[in-house]
Each structure stands twice: as C-alpha cells, then as structure tokens.
Design a protein that fits this description.
Mean pLDDT: 96
Helix content: 25-40%
Strand order of the largest sheet: 8-9-10-7-11-12-13-14
Structural class: alpha/beta
Distance between the termini: 48 Å
Low-confidence stretches: none
Radius of gyration: 20 Å
Number of strands: 15
Order of helices and strands: EHEHEHEHEHEHEHHEEEEEEEHEH
Strand content: 25-35%
Length: 314
C-alpha cells in the first residue's frame, strides 16, 4: 500500500481524498492547507494527520507520494521540494505557469529518480475513453476536424482571487481550460506536434487575465480543431468531432452522441463519476513502473508549450 499525502484542500481536493479513502492501494497519511480549519476538518473526516506547512510532511510522516492541489504559481516549488525529498508527485493541471517552471520540475524528477505525473483528468472520463475507441477503430472513418465550445461564468465571486491574477495563475481561461482541451486532443489523436493560431482578450478590464479566446490547432499530418472559450456567461459546453462517415459529440464532458445518418444517437457510456479513482489507479501503475494512462512531466511540458503558443500568437 502506497502512503500518500494531499497538499492543498481547494474545491477538487475532496474528489482526490474520496478516491484515496476508497482505494485498496493507497493509505492517506496527511492533509495540508494554510487555512487551518480546512486542514483540521479534512483530517477529521478522513481520519489522518494534518499540517499547515507542507515542508513538514517528509519530516513528520512516512509518505511515499503526494498529490499537489495548490494554486498554479506554487506547483513548481512544491513539486521540486517533494521530489527532492524522495516522494512521487501527482500535480494538478496545469503543470506549471510556463515552460521554464515545467523544465525545472522535470529536472528535479530526473535527478531524484521519483515519478512526476500530471493530473489531466478528462482522459479518464468514460465518454472520452469511448470516443478514443471510436477514433482508433475507424468506425466512423478518419477524423477530419473538431470544434470545442465552452462558456462559463469565469469571473464569479466563488472563484479564488489568485485565479484572476496573471502572476499567480499564469493566465486566465486559456491556461485553466485550455489545458483540458489540448490534453483531450493530444490523447484522442495521439499527436503532440501542433501549430496554433489565436485571438484572446478581456472585455472586463477589472482583471489582467483573458476572459475569452479562440484558437485554431493544426496537427502535423493530422486533423484540425477550433476551440472557443467565453468566460462571461455560462451557456453550454460541447465538443463535436467530424469524421468521414459521421460525427460524434460530447456534451458536458460526460454525454456521448453519435450521428451516422443525420440523427444523433445517445451512447450510454455508464458514466460513474469515478474518473479520479481511475486516475489514482493509473498513478499507482506509473509509480510501480507499469504501463499507465496517466501522463508524465515530459508530456505536461508539451501542454504548457502549446498554451504558451496560444498566448504568443494573439
């Protein structure tokens, strides 16, 4: 059983903690957050130790691995710290704020001999897993192109303020949701060499991060994708994939539809909201040196490099 800690108890942390608690392969030995009440409440709920400073975890526990769920600007320094102290690391996406930080994280992983994984969760959604099977089987012929439209109230009062400060977040809607969109494409198509053209902006001048973006992704010797993000109102979220012999559509990340003759057919993929459990199981395989669907730091670097292309191009 792998002894693991969770650092950062933000909104996604409960999914990580539930997955660990229900796993037969991991034992939760610590939680950590600078907000003391959060740390204490999580420790009580999951029956584990709590810390307010993550630097104490290697000294005070026998943790072998850690999940980092901190603000983006802390991903690099915390990842490097844990790797240098002998722990395997699963860090939430985006891997880092820029490729310079991502490179430092990969260097630390190589020197330490410990494993560095990046939490690109959408590849573990059953709708995307099934879509990958359809693409690989050529059931609908060759994939020609795709579109993604995501609208969300990005500047709502519930969003932590660091998200809206470029120095801390690395950017706005592109680095946050673009990490999902690009990983999904790289996973589905199996290519990471891309050309990108983009336009981004913000009609809300209260913040220094972008609130809307459109970018065009062209895969080398492969299909293209047009991605549209709007952060001003929550209207919908869907991805459409255009093949030689029809189309596929994923709405809300979990509902899959196929269209072969002009009619959309719902495909029940038996979504179970256990994507985080599947990611954790793949993290175990990765730690043990087995083939795994979870992605490593070298792949994470490529996602950040693609995001930088979006920002550089506009």
């Amino acid at each position: 059983m792998i002894k693991i800690a969770v650092v950062g108890l933000g909104i996604i942390s409960e999914e990580h903690l539930d997955a660990i608690y229900e796993s037969n392969d991991f034992q939760l030995v610590a939680v950590c957050d600078v907000i003391k009440d959060k740390a204490k409440e999580a420790a009580e709920k999951y029956k584990t130790n709590y810390f307010f400073d993550y630097h104490e975890i290697p000294k005070m526990t026998d943790a072998e691995a850690v999940i980092i769920n901190l603000p983006h600007f802390l991903h690099c320094e915390s990842t490097v710290f844990f790797l240098e102290n002998g722990l395997h690391v699963l860090v939430e996406k985006p891997m880092a704020n820029n490729t310079k930080e991502a490179a430092l994280m990969n260097e630390a992983a190589e020197k330490s001999g410990k494993k560095l994984a990046i939490g690109h969760i959408q590849r573990f959604f059953k709708a995307n897993t099934k879509l990958k099977e359809i693409i690989d089987s050529s059931e609908l012929g060759k994939l020609c192109m795709s579109t993604e439209l995501r609208t969300v109230d990005y500047f709502n009062d519930r969003r932590p303020k660091w998200f809206l400060q470029k120095e801390k977040s690395g950017g706005g809607i592109v680095i946050n949701y673009g990490a999902h969109a690009l990983d999904k494409l790289f996973y589905l198509i199996g290519i990471t060499d891309v050309e990108i053209h983009s336009l981004i902006g913000n009609v809300n001048n209260d913040y220094d991060v972008e609130g809307h973006a459109q970018f065009f992704v062209k895969f080398k010797d492969g299909p293209s994708s047009a991605i549209t993000f709007s952060g001003y109102s929550s209207v919908g979220y869907e991805c459409i994939y255009y093949f030689e012999k029809g189309c596929a559509k994923v709405t809300g990340s979990s509902e899959l539809f196929i269209n072969k003759d002009g009619t959309w057919e719902y495909i029940d993929v038996k979504e179970d909201n256990k994507a985080m459990h599947r990611q954790l199981a793949e993290f175990k395989k990765y730690i043990n040196g087995e083939p795994s669907l979870i992605v490593d730091g070298e792949y994470g670097y490529k996602i950040i490099a693609a995001i930088e292309k979006v920002y550089e191009e506009h």
